[in-house]
Amino acid sequence: MGCYVLTSMFHASIPSDTAAGLRRLILLPCRFAFIASEFLHGHDRTDRYFVHFRRLLEEAGIRFADSYVIDGRMTPQTAREAAACADVLWLSGGNTPRAFACLLEYGLDEVIRRHPGVIIGMSAGSINLARTAVCSLTCGHSRQEIYPGLGCVDITVEPHFKPDAVSEELLTLSRRIPLTGLCDEASIIVENGVPAYCGDVFSIVDGHVSRLHSSADNP
Description:
Elements: E1 3-7, H1 16-25, E2 30-35, H2 43-59, E3 64-70, H3 76-84, E4 88-91, H4 96-105, H5 108-114, E5 118-122, H6 124-128, E6 132-135, E7 145-148, E8 157-159, H7 168-173, E9 179-182, E10 187-191, E11 194-198, E12 201-205, E13 208-213
Parallel strand pairs: 1-5, 2-3, 2-4, 4-5, 8-9
Antiparallel strand pairs: 1-10, 6-7, 9-12, 10-11, 12-13
C-alpha cells in the first residue's frame, strides 16, 4: 500500500507543513510521474501544469532523478510501465470523470492501486482516489456524478471547498455520503489508512459542517 496525499490546489507554493510531510515520505532523489487528466488532447496545457507543479515541488525541497508526463503520447503499455517504476505519482486536476476514464482505458487504475510509493492527487485526482467519487455541481462539474473510484482511500473529498458558502447540494449529499471539504492550499496525508490534516479541512456529514483542522494550527 502506498502513501496518499489529497490536495485541492497549490497556487504559488506548497505550504510548509505539506512540504515537510512530502520530504519525510519521499526518498530523494525520486522518479516523478505526472499523470494527465486528459490523455488525447490539451498536451500543451498538461505540459504547463507539469512544469508548474514540478517547480513547486522542487521549491519545497523535492529533488528528482527523473520526471515525465504520462498521457496519450505514450502507448498504454509504456504508460503502465512508466507509472509502475515511478516513486511518486501525481494525479492531475481537470475533468474528473474524463480523468477516471483515461486511467481505466490505459489500465493505470490497477497500477495505482498496487503502487507502493507516494501518490498525490490534486482536485480531480483526489476525488478519483476515493472509494466513492463524488463530482458535485458545487465543485464546477457539468452534472452531479457518483461512482466507485480507485478505492485507495476511504475519504470522499470536495476540493476547492468554501466553508462560508456551503451549498444545499453538499448538505444533501452528505446525508448519503460523508464528505471532506478540502480548501485550496490544504492537504490530507494518509499513511496506513490514517489521515493527517494540513491547512483548512472540514467534515460535511449528515447535513452538518464541522472543522477538522485549521491553517492556524499549522506549525
